[in-house]
Amino acid sequence: MNPMNEPTPRSSRAQQRIDTQERILSAAGRLFAALGYDRTTIRAVAAAAEVDAGLVMHYFGSKERLFAEATRTETPLVTGETPEEVAEQLLGILRQSLIEEPIASLAALRSMLTHPDAAAEVGNAHAERVKVSKAIPGVDGNLRAAVVSAILIGVVLGRHLVKLDELADADPDEIVELLRPAVLSLTKADRTE
Amino acid sequence: MNPMNEPTPRSSRAQQRIDTQERILSAAGRLFAALGYDRTTIRAVAAAAEVDAGLVMHYFGSKERLFAEATRTETPLVTGETPEEVAEQLLGILRQSLIEEPIASLAALRSMLTHPDAAAEVGNAHAERVKVSKAIPGVDGNLRAAVVSAILIGVVLGRHLVKLDELADADPDEIVELLRPAVLSLTKADRTE
DNA sequence: TCCTTCATTCAACGGATGTAGAACGGTTCA
DNA sequence: TGAACCGTTCTACATCCGTTGAATGAAGGA
To answer: Are B140 and A174 contacting, i.e. CB atoms less than 8 angstroms apart?
Structure first.
């Protein structure tokens, strides 16, 4: 079909389609993270991607599906066995989330309070973390995991979205160091029940 | 002017006006807390208060001002001198916020990610808490106070708004107990810098 | 070259929202 | 009683939104 080893010509129609879709997804992610689901309009996404609003609908079908695609993210696994290992892995995830802004996650976070799907997405990431409760001893392992989850959400939210001055300006490692004893106190069952 | 010791007749026009305004404010608080600023419409508030939408405008001027009035709340002061006292007072505030749903605060919390004014309101409550940093020793007192603030926000948010199952169902006192060492580790400067 | 395909744009609709102003009807007071 | 007041409702406007379907024009294949 094609004599050369180039199955499709560069900059073909298919390629341009992919490029445009990526441009739309990127713009959508940025806007959803900055404004949340409701305040982000399809028209604004289209404008940011330098495209007509109808094209966004044509590719993604609805604002709902666009949001789902723009916020899709793989949650890092927590596989530690001991409470100390679990704590370190959670702190590692936190550290990474403090250093770089995880756009897709931030988009879900900012929308979780007003958009059910976003809340479900955040809930899933949280549930993934709760599964480590097998490694958190005590009858209240699940509750401990949930509290840690809430803490991580609160800190990331305070730094990137609410932008509490002290949190936004601080050195990520310093925050992690401050939180180490807190997280450790929750992953280790040091309470007699 | 009035021969009896009843300066204004009960159920007078003034009284009815006050009643209606309170009914509107109550409905607004509940809706803002449940749906956030954007998804709460003036028409919905009016319907919940069994009143016409125009009346809400007549009394509060704009949705903006209605929100400001509905979310006005006095933040409890933290006056402790020692790190331990500060920790206990913060835990007490948390406990109270876990037991009963602080409607006005929840309204501000749910809207903080999409509405600038709400974010400012939350920021103020946070700043009030940061002032305790005078009682938190160490060069990083401010940062420590901010981290505690973020933790409290995260936990209250997780319980009342995101409704993470484990947090929503748990006994408030149990959550407070779990967080005590975490908060203590942050109010006490136990790190050598 | 001609026809098909398809990425993209254009124009429009139906609905919802914040807000403004006129109108109504009971209350208050001289 | 009669007139002013005011709590309340009704109607309407301008805007913005998600979404749709037709139109356009360039690229790809026969």
So the answer is: yes
Contact B64, B78 (CB under 8 A): no
B86 CA: distance to closest CA in chain A (Å): 16
Range of weakest confidence among A111-115, A139-143, B42-46: A139-143
Distance of CA A40 to the CA centre of its chain: 17
From first CA to last CA, the distance across chain A in angstroms is 73
- pLDDT by residue (tens digit) across B19-43? 999 999 999 999 999 999 999 999 9
Neighbours of B4 (CB within 10 A): 6
Q: What pLDDT, in 10s, does the model give residues B74-120?
A: 888 888 889 999 999 999 999 999 999 999 999 999 999 999 999 99
Six-digit token string for A42: 């399809």
Sorted by sequence, the CB contacts under 8 Å of residue A37 that are 6+ apart come out as A67, A111, A114, A115, A118
d(CA B80, CA B132): 8
User: Residues 139-178, chain A: which have Cβ within 8 Å of B?
Assistant: 140, 142-147, 149-155, 157-159, 161-162, 164-167, 170, 174-175, 177-178
pLDDT, tens digit, 9 for 90 and up, residues A22-59: 999 999 999 999 999 999 999 999 999 999 999 999 99
* B40 closest-nt by C1' vs CA: C17
**Do A114 and B35 touch, CB atoms closer than 8 A?**
yes
CB contact under 8 A, A162 and B109: no
| The residue to which tokens 């305070």 are assigned | A158
Count CA within 13 A, CB hemisphere, residue A82.
3
Residue nearest to nucleotide D11 (CA to C1'): B54
Q: Has residue A173 got a pLDDT over 80?
A: yes
Q: What is the value of pTM for the model shown?
A: 0.91
d(CA B124, CA A189): 35
Question: Which among B140, B138, B142 has a CA at the least distance from the CA of B150?
Answer: B142
